[in-house]
């Protein structure tokens, strides 16, 4: 009972803090929104198109716009398109030459320069998708030019016939056949940003909240409580419950907001609840450990978020660990974050249940036990000596 | 003026004694930038392993396989022949291949007007880009086949004598070709973007340090004691601003230096980088003045500076790669000094000349002027009360 009273008092103090509320509620939601919107769709290559005058050039731009696996943006000048390429706003730029129509009309071929910033994945994807789109556009042009040569007339005169026949002459189609319906990475957009930010912010917030425990020690609150007939273990338990409550409260807020505002499906309810509670226990251990290790509140506020963000980066909260080298992936699994993200991936990407996340849950449980024991022993020792 | 330097030196000495200031200003940004460099090192190029199943064994299928394994695509694909479609599907599912192409029986006959069966590209959600690239390559190849068939049909419909139309069409080459050209732009690496982004993020913590320090001095009477000395209020303001400017510039400059020397980040022409660093440091000074002007207490200043710092870095793009963000986020970023600075740093890292920083620096100066004016007006109103 005493432990609950201590927990409630500490929790009330933390929740009343406006900065804590900002970091607990508003910041995670805004980050989920920003990251979710930025990584909102499949990694479709983006291509800037600098168009030229003429109906054929316009037709090509339109064909590229409708090409599967490509997102196009029109740019008025080559310089604007180059600026966008340099800033990473597009993966490639295709330049339709000014004499595009004239060259094709006179039966000559045209080379379309494609500018890329390097051999990145999306640049390669853009190159191939643009090539396919251009080839698709050139099909009717080639047919019209051939008909003009064989039967007389001009390319522009024969083009409507070629375009009309294009819909009736059978094509060799390319069909896709996905081999599985689930993946090893979280679904793009909010489906990825919400669970990873839950992992990140519960940990960061717990660590930063260590400042409150440092302050409590500095103000002598623990010492005054000990003056009452309160055993030290009740204080340790009370502080643990306070941190656990804080972590669970923040998790619940992120889960609710993720589901209601961003339409995130959190997977199997039982598994999601167990995972959330275990992760909150890890956060509790980290926050309490921080509260006993940091010497000043400033240290906790400064180092807590830095350590939390660094662990989050290593553990796959900022980007999926699938894209990093194997060694970095292994290193990432030294942090609890990677195991939590693995578990969310199993639930959200592969539709798994409790049985599918037993290994990550076990590892996270071990992390929680280790951190809680370490923090409890240190806090107990500081209270009794 | 001497008084200003004395005050600045005193403030810097205080900052140097604070380990949190060292951790946040120098250690954390370098550590985080290094972590990003480590994570993304060597992971920024694209290459896919693709299986090919030839069920046709005709001339056209061989030509297609040769095209896939040819020198033009050697840097993009590694092609492995696989016996049957079931094995290819299983191996794509296992992750041995990013995608597989199944060339159907009768594919070669399509060139001579035979029935057309689709090419199948087997994909997996774990390698969407590999599937996309393979599909585009197959699309480019089949486009030539379609173009030849369409050319024969169009010429015949236009009244060309039948003769050996098909043979002549087979010698055609699509009149539009995509040619890759170097753009003169460098790929923005992880450390190239997040080095300055994280550098600025942690530099913004100086707002809180300075504002807190100001109110602490106000509370303990230091400012009043300075006021009775023959030191003008302007000298106090200049001294405190100078200290903040020096700390911010040193922090961001250190990130620049360390990421350049240790992680090989190319920040661009040093003079332009130095101007940008100075502009960012100036914006930190103006933001600090704004926080001090609108706050009444140390606690308010602390809260406002934390929210301002996180708000600015979120909107300014320091947490997400702005190039991949939606247009509205990119526009929103230009309302912040760090958004402009990040755009300029990205331009420089992408290979733009030193002159490219002129507009961003002017924009930062305008924001600084606005902040200073607002701070001045608020302060004057507060004094009149």
UniProtKB/TrEMBL annotation, chain A:
GO terms for molecular function: ABC-type transporter activity. InterPro entries: ABC-2_transporter_component, ABC2_TM, ABC2_TM_bact-type. The chain crosses the membrane at residues 20-39, 194-214, 241-264, 270-290, 302-321, 357-377. One of its GO terms (cellular component) is plasma membrane. Keywords: Cell membrane, Membrane, Transmembrane, Transmembrane helix, Transport. Belongs to the ABC-2 integral membrane protein family. This is ABC transporter permease. It comes from Amycolatopsis mongoliensis.
UniProtKB/TrEMBL annotation, chain B:
Gene3D superfamilies: abc type-2 transporter like domain. This is ABC transporter permease. It is a multi-pass membrane protein. The chain crosses the membrane at residues 21-40, 193-215, 245-265, 271-294, 306-325, 357-378. It comes from Amycolatopsis mongoliensis. It is found in: Cell membrane. Keywords: Cell membrane, Membrane, Transmembrane, Transmembrane helix. It comes from the Bacteria. One of its GO terms (cellular component) is plasma membrane. InterPro entries: ABC-2_transporter_component, ABC2_TM. Residues 21-377 form the ABC-2 type transporter transmembrane domain. One of its GO terms (molecular function) is ABC-type transporter activity. Pfam families: ABC2_membrane_3.
């Amino acid at each position: 009972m005493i432990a609950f009273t201590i927990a409630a008092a500490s929790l009330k103090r933390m929740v009343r803090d406006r900065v804590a509320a900002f970091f607990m509620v508003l910041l995670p939601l805004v980050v989920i929104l920003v990251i979710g919107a930025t990584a909102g769709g499949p990694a479709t290559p983006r291509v800037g198109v600098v168009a030229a005058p003429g109906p054929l050039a316009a037709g090509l731009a339109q064909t590229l716009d409708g090409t599967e696996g490509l997102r196009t943006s029109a740019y008025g000048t080559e310089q604007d398109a180059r600026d966008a390429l340099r800033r990473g706003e597009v993966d490639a730029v295709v330049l339709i030459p000014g004499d595009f129509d004239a060259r094709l009309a006179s039966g000559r071929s045209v080379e379309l320069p494609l500018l890329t910033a390097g051999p990145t994945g999306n640049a390669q994807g853009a190159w191939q998708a643009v090539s396919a789109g251009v080839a698709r556009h050139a099909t009717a042009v080639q047919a019209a030019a051939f008909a003009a040569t064989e039967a007389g007339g001009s390319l522009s005169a024969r083009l409507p016939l070629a375009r009309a026949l294009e819909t009736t002459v059978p094509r060799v189609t390319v069909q896709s056949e996905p081999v599985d319906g689930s993946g090893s990475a979280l679904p793009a957009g909010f489906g990825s940003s919400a669970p990873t930010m839950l992992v990140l912010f519960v940990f960061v917030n717990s660590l930063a909240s260590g400042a409150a425990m440092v302050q409590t020690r500095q103000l002598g609150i623990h010492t005054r409580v000990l003056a009452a007939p309160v055993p030290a273990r009740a204080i340790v338990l009370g502080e643990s419950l306070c941190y656990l409550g804080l972590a669970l409260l923040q998790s619940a807020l992120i889960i609710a907001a993720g589901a209601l505002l961003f339409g995130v499906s959190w997977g199997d309810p039982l598994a999601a609840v167990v995972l959330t509670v275990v992760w909150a226990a890890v956060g509790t251990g980290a926050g309490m450990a921080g509260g006993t290790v940091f010497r000043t509140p400033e240290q906790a506020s400064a180092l807590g978020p830095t350590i939390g963000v660094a662990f989050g980066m290593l553990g796959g909260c900022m980007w999926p660990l699938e894209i990093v080298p194997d060694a970095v992936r292994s290193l990432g699994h030294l942090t609890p974050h990677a195991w939590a993200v693995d578990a969310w991936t199993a639930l959200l990407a592969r539709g798994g249940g409790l049985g599918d996340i037993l290994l990550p849950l076990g590892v996270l449980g071990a992390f929680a036990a280790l951190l809680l024991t370490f923090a409890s022993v240190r806090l107990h020792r500081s209270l009794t000596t | 003026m001497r008084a200003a330097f004395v005050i600045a030196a005193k403030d810097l000495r205080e900052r140097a004694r604070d380990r949190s200031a060292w951790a946040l200003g120098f250690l954390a940004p370098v550590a985080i930038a290094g972590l990003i460099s480590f994570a993304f090192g060597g992971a920024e190029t694209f290459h896919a392993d693709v299986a090919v199943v030839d069920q046709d064994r005709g001339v056209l299928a061989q030509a297609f396989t040769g095209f896939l394994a040819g020198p033009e695509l050697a840097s993009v694909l590694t092609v492995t022949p696989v016996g049957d479609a079931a094995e290819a599907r299983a191996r794509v599912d296992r992750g041995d291949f990013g995608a597989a192409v199944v060339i159907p029986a009768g594919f070669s006959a399509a060139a001579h007007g035979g029935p057309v069966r689709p090419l199948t590209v087997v994909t997996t959600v774990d390698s969407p880009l590999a599937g996309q690239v393979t599909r585009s390559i197959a699309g480019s190849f089949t486009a030539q086949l379609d173009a030849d068939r369409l050319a024969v049909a169009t010429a015949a419909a236009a009244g060309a004598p039948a003769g050996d139309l098909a043979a002549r069409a087979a010698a055609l080459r699509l009149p539009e070709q995509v040619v890759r050209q170097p753009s003169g732009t460098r790929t923005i690496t992880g450390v190239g973007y997040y080095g300055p982004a994280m550098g600025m993020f942690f530099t913004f913590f100086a707002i809180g340090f300075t504002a807190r320090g100001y109110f602490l001095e106000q509370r303990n009477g230091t400012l009043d004691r300075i006021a009775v000395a023959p030191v003008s209020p302007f000298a106090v303001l200049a001294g405190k601003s100078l200290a903040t400017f020096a700390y911010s510039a040193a922090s961001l400059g250190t990130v620049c230096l360390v990421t350049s020397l240790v992680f090989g980040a190319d920040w661009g022409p040093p003079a332009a980088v130095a101007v940008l660093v100075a502009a960012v440091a100036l914006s930190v000074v103006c933001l600090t003045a704004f926080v001090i002007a609108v706050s009444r207490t140390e606690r308010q200043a602390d809260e406002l500076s934390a929210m301002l710092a996180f708000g600015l870095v979120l909107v300014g793009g320091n947490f997400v790669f702005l190039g991949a963000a939606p247009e509205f986020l990119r526009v929103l970023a230009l309302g912040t000094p760090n958004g402009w600075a990040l755009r300029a740093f990205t331009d420089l890292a992408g290979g733009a000349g030193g002159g490219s920083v002129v507009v961003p620096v002017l924009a930062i100066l305008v924001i600084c002027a606005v902040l200073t004016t607002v701070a001045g007006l608020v302060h004057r109103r507060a004094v009149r009360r």
